[in-house]
What we know:
This protein is 60% helix and 0% strand. It is mostly helical.
Amino acid sequence: MSSVARALLGLLLALGLSALAQPPSPTPPPDLSPEVFRIAKGLRCPVCQGESASESNSGVAQEMRRLIAEQLAQGKSEAEIRQFFVERYGPWILYEPPKQGLTLWVWLSPLIGLALLSYGLWRYLTATRAKAAQGDVSEEEIARLEAELLPPDTQHRTP
């Protein structure tokens, strides 16, 4: 085997080994259950922006997943685990804020806005219909409009 062939074989072997060293696919590691990642998906990563604790690879997120796994092993429910993180970090740690207190306003504001818009539209249409039904047109205006609407050949026949 020539030295060039050995160099090519060594290069191919190095490329093959580096391909094996790539990070695995984003499936959960076998040491943590899918339940851990499901619960972590509802929690924010405290140090990453826009990532959940299940998506982030930061040390804090890994620690959060480990704590979730420990608490699941202790038999705690998902609600208890979520409450643990809320007590530790505050309610902002939840991706979906609870529907109570000040955050209830956030959940209800679209409905309140829609109700106000519907009320304003109803008031406008009611006022417009009432104004049209009043008949604020004088007798002179009605006579002038009737005269204008008549065909030209009949206008001179009327006394």
